[in-house]
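User: Sequence recovery, please. Input:
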């Protein structure tokens, strides 16, 4: 991660399909690398402000299989929804 002594400012343009290219300065400040997951957090109390965090790779997929296979989890969800009635 790059250590700076002040804020880092960079611009990015929102494109079709809500796509952006993260500026190099921000990527370096996050210590991000290709395939990293970036989490965006917006607070309605701060309109126009979004915080970006690089998610630790250790968390990615760490709970896979914790509650069974994908099929088992989907079956459980369908069963629960069916129990709600109409």
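Assistant: Recovered sequence (86 residues):
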């Amino acid at each position: 991660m790059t250590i700076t002594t002040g804020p880092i400012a960079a611009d990015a343009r929102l494109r079709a399909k809500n796509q952006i290219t993260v500026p190099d300065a921000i990527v370096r400040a996050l210590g991000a690398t290709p395939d990293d997951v970036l989490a965006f957090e917006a607070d309605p109390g701060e309109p126009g402000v979004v915080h970006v965090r690089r998610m630790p790779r250790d968390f990615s997929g760490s709970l896979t299989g914790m509650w069974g296979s994908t099929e088992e989890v989907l079956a459980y969800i369908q069963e629960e929804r069916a129990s709600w009635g109409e």
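Residues 70-83 form the longest helix (14 residues).
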